[in-house]
Amino acid sequence: MRQDIITLPEITQRSYSHKATAQVFNDPKSKKLLEYIQKIAPSEASVLIHGETGTGKELVARKIHEYSHRQNKPFIAVNCGAFSENLVESELFGHEKGAFTGALSSNAGWFEAANGGTLLLDEIGDLSRQVQVKLLRVLQEREVVRLGSRKSIPIDVRVLTATNVNLEQAIIAEQFREDLYYRLNVVTLDIKPLRERRGDILPLALHFIDKYHEQLGYSKASFSEEAKIKLNEYWWPGNIRELENMIHHALLISSNGVIHAENLPFTKCTQNPKPNDNNAEKKTRELHTDPKLKEVFENLFKKNHGHVYSKFEEELLKVAYQYCQQNQVKTAELLGLSRNVIRSRLIELGELIVNKRL
């Protein structure tokens, strides 16, 4: 039942990562995704992978690489949100000795390191527009120029990208380049959250039991029927990574080789409405027909003719920021944008003061 599980290489630092470390294709939706991957992988098309945090986007990218003609070449995954604005160009494109303070030697960037293989740019929405311009040029010209150099270096890399934000919204907000989006979005893969592919939950849970049994010497365990029901009913806001952490915890406190429902530390927060929830649909219809909301929009149109969208965007961001108690990460999640986008717009609007060192 678990023959289609794929896992990340064992790296110690991943223990505290938000990344999913395993992916399975047991649910009918996942099987369809795997079939689609097998079709598009042999091509050289750029692929944009979209999904919530912890759904296994990097693992899907590795599966694409595995089924491609580049399978025996390097696969490198880079988190674009992990680098500071000053270092991201050097990390991606490389630099020459003396290119900037601290550049004591020449170094190849990730594009050169992945030459001949596949490069995954994770959290692509976190790149600044300045870096986006340079990335677009690299994709068009198929060559990189290291910082501090005028010499171009040819590259042969298949670029895959991943994001948990809506890039189309980022384009409207002028935080992501439209031409780069269409360059990256030849093929789109939408990774469903774990709550929408429940046939994967138990196989993944059993895999994590095996994993910690082998690595840490925990007793081999199984699930009670009540625990299985609870696993399938839970909505998994943290997706696969949350499931792994939960199984790890359950193994620590379970006894007699059985994991019971009370051994599973489910998050006590409001569950997302189900797609077929009649109350949710009713609320959605009421929102669209709310006379007060209609009046607000009409007043906005009258007072801000020609500047409606920019004014609406400003007020929406300010209200969302205050609603989230001035937490940038929560604001980004609420609006479906990246934290870097939220941060830069808040600075522009004077809602966030940045202390700059001289």
UniProtKB/TrEMBL annotation:
PROSITE patterns (UniProt xref): SIGMA54_INTERACT_1, SIGMA54_INTERACT_2, SIGMA54_INTERACT_3, SIGMA54_INTERACT_4
Signal peptide location: none
Protein's name according to its UniProt entry: Fis family transcriptional regulator
BP-aspect Gene Ontology terms: regulation of DNA-templated transcription
Domain Sigma-54 factor interaction: residue ranges: 23-252
Keywords from the UniProt entry: ATP-binding, DNA-binding, Nucleotide-binding, Transcription, Transcription regulation
Transcription regulation recorded as keyword: yes
Any one Gene Ontology molecular-function term assigned to this protein's record: DNA binding
InterPro entries: AAA+_ATPase, AAA_lid_NorR, Homeodomain-like_sf, P-loop_NTPase, Sigma_54_int, Sigma_54_int_dom_ATP-bd_1, Sigma_54_int_dom_ATP-bd_2, Sigma_54_int_dom_CS
